[in-house]
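Report of the visiting student (M.T.), summer placement. My assignment was to run the structure pipeline on a short list of targets and document each run. The first record concerns CCT-theta.
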Amino acid sequence: MGFGMQSMLKEGHKHLSGLDEAVLKNIDACKQLSTITRTSLGPNGMNKMVINHLDKLFVTNDAATIVNELEVQHPAAKILVLASKAQQEEIGDGANLTISFAGELLQAAEELIRMGLHPSEIISGYTKAINKTVEILDELVEEGSENMDVRDKEQVISRMRAAVASKQFGQEDTLCSLIADACIQVCPKNPVNFNVDNVRVAKLVGGGLHNSAVVPGMVLRSDAVGTIKHIEKAKVAVFVGGVDTSATETKGTVLIHSAEQLENYSKTEEAKVEELIKAVADSGAKVIVSGAAVGEMALHFCERYKLMVLKISSKFELRRFCRTTGSVAMLKLCQPKPDDLGYVDSVSVEEIGGARIIMSKPAGGPRRDQPAPGMDED
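After the run finished, the structure tokens were exported:
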């Protein structure tokens, strides 16, 4: 005789508990994730508005960005997120397809589980389907397509066109040419070691996509600190801690009894700053890059010794600048050693669309391990 909830249900019912219930809960979590990204699939996919934990707003239809900014808590859904990230890192496209396709497979599996099939039988069926799919795909591969010259612009464009069109439909012809030029310029001898971070995009207000160009070297969206705006064939010194007089960790008190003592105190400080700037100038450097504030007194002596001063606040941009010029970043203002200095063919401040930018071109064009940022005016 039945008891409890079992007695209230008619014959032929199935009460899910234990393993089946846990599997269905996992499937439901994955389906919810795929429902979020599914409507953004394809060139006509809709944009999503995502606000992350830092209250930063993202409006995008790129599934890789969406899942990166979502805070996914469920373990099963996290597996889908990891799969999409692996797809994005390995291929550079198809993150949305990975999640959406997995969601469809799990939805079909849910129906089979409710019909009474065991999950192991469903897994066995999907494994056979994978093997058959691989056989069919092998027959569809065009002969010779696996061989590719990564420095042939036409071959690079033909392979990236589909990925670019899914993000910027209708603009793929313009963008593919720019992307191919930038990637070929920075491609190392062994293409496996290609670093995606070596191609950057600098956006400027005004103009349009047709005004975009590839700039060998580096583009910084800022102005030079001093009056010197252009210099050629220069050695570069990079200081992370800024170009200014160093302050002590503890506060000190200086007791001054006369105007003469005050004047001598100021002269001592000026002499110390001038000594440091002169030491940098004597090392052969013509460009000083600061990662923090540039003091007024230090800037005055930089102008006197004809040194161009740049300020790069972002540590990531500073790291890229060091890699581009071959410089070694020093912690504090001091006389750099010859091995610490970098070199550039030219550094100049230019005005485009009302915005001032710094264009740095390395010696002999970009080396294979140097950034070549694309410049996009939009």
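The first helix runs from residue 5 to 8. The radius of gyration is 30 Å. I thank the supervising group for their guidance throughout the placement.
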